[in-house]
Structure formats: C-alpha cells, structure tokens
C-alpha cells in the first residue's frame, strides 16, 4: 500500500492520467491525496472531477481556491473571468451531482503525522487549531445554508484572522488562510503576493519560514504556490509544480518521499 500526494491538477486531465499510470496506481491498496485546485485554467475540469469522484474511497481531496470559485460561480456569487475554463462543468448533465460532491469535500485532511491543506497555516495556528477551524467551515458547507459561506467569500474584503472574529466573517477568514496563504508577517497578517519566495515583500515571509510557527511538529502538505514549486523538508511537502503553466504535475509517495513527475500533456 502506498499513499501519493498530488499537486494542483487544475483541469489537466491528460497530465493526471499520465501521472496515475506512472504511479502504477492500485485502487485496491493505494491512496491518492489531492491538494486542491482540481479545476480551472486547464482544458478539462469536467473530466478531472469525474475521474477523481469515480476513485471513491481511494482518493482524498481538500478544497482549493479554484474549487470554491467554481462553487460560487455555479450559485451566481462570482463571475467568470476571461482565463477561467470551468464552462464544461457548469453545462454538464451531471453538474449538480459533481458540485454537490465537490462542496462536501473538506478543507483539511489529517492523518497521523500529516496534515494536508491547500495553501498553508498561520504561524499562531497549531494543528489542533487548524483541524477545529476547518471543521467549522466544512460543517456549514455540507448543510443546506452553505450558500452563506460562498457568498461571503466573494463579496467584500475578507478580514484578517483574529480569534475574536465571529459568525460568517470568522468562517470566511479561515477559508482565506487555508486556501490562499503564501506569505504573512510573524503576527499573521497576510499578503496577496504570488511570486517567487526570493521576492517576498518586505515585512513578510513565506508562512513556512516563520520561526515561531506552532505547527512545526507535523508535516504539512500544500499546493497553491506554483512559483514556489516542489519543496520537500522534514515538515513540509509543497507540490504545486505549475502543471497548468506548462510545467510538471507532481506526486510524492509519502512513505519514502519518492517524487514522481510528468510533463504537461494537455496541449
């Protein structure tokens, strides 16, 4: 049995199929952990959703910002932009089934020594905190009033995280951290920076480089930051290697940290 963490697929179905073939994936014994952003910017978001949903219990998924954007567009809370490529999902005959399945995926997956989230953790969050915060959002997204969260995520600026936040602002701030964080201050103020780590704005640091962060006792698995690329340390596995930008789609076998990559194949 092997567990493979897979980076941001973003609608790159041909690349994903090649990677799964490379892994010699056995759905009876192996597990695939998807770090979020299954959809958008690539050519076949619909095919990716169908494939991963079909994997059933052999796949674990956490939601990324593009996945939440798809859900918000479907509900009329966000508008498509010129670079978005999720029209195929929105017009599919099985649209409602796929979107319901996607909405019920978690924001985190915690298994033993590993915690998988799409983007990162604030320095003042412990793993226990993060699991608790994520579960609060997941509960609402799975309930009939899930639209309240999606609407808040795409209307008005989302406040910086503070323990004093309550209600829908608290949930939206949690989602912002888990799906958009790249750099922040030691006190947890986030920036919108998305470039390479060496060009991080003054006063900010990559979230994983903040020396006093409270999650160093667990290996955090993330995607989201294509400009960072593949990064493997004793307590961080970063696997967005920019497939949708014409680079590689990456999997890491967690048992021994072996890296598997395929070149972009969705031309």
Describe the fold and architecture:
By secondary structure, the protein is an alpha/beta fold. The chain has a single domain (3-263), classed as 4-Layer Sandwich (Purple Acid Phosphatase, chain A, domain 2). It has helices at 13-23, 45-54, 65-74, 87-90, 95-103, 127-141, 147-153, 167-180, and strands at residues 3-6, 31-34, 59-61, 109-111, 114-116, 183-184, 205-206, 219-222, 231-233, 236-238, 248-253, 258-263. Strands 3-2-1-11-12 form a five-stranded mixed β-sheet, covered by helices on one side. Strands 4-5-8-10-9 form a five-stranded mixed β-sheet, with no helix packed on it. A two-stranded antiparallel sheet has the order 6-7.
Radius of gyration: 17 Å
Placed side by side, the strands forming the largest sheet appear as 3-2-1-11-12
**Whole-number count of domains:** 1
Mean pLDDT, as a whole number? 97
Q: What's the CATH class label?
A: Alpha Beta
**SSE pattern, N- to C-terminal:** EHEHEHHHEEHHHEEEEEEE
Shape from CA axes?
globular
**Largest sheet, described in full?**
5 strands, mixed
Distance between the termini: 33 Å
Looking at CATH, which topology would you report? Purple Acid Phosphatase, chain A, domain 2
The tally of helices reads 8
- Total strand segments: 12
Key terms:
267 residues, alpha/beta, 5-stranded mixed beta sheet, 8 helices
Topology, please?
Layout lengths: L2 E4 L6 H11 L7 E4 L10 H10 L4 E3 L3 H10 L12 H4 L4 H9 L5 E3 L2 E3 L10 H15 L5 H7 L13 H14 L2 E2 L20 E2 L12 E4 L8 E3 L2 E3 L9 E6 L4 E6 L4
Parallel strand pairs: 1-2, 2-3, 5-8, 8-10
Antiparallel strand pairs: 1-11, 4-5, 6-7, 9-10, 11-12
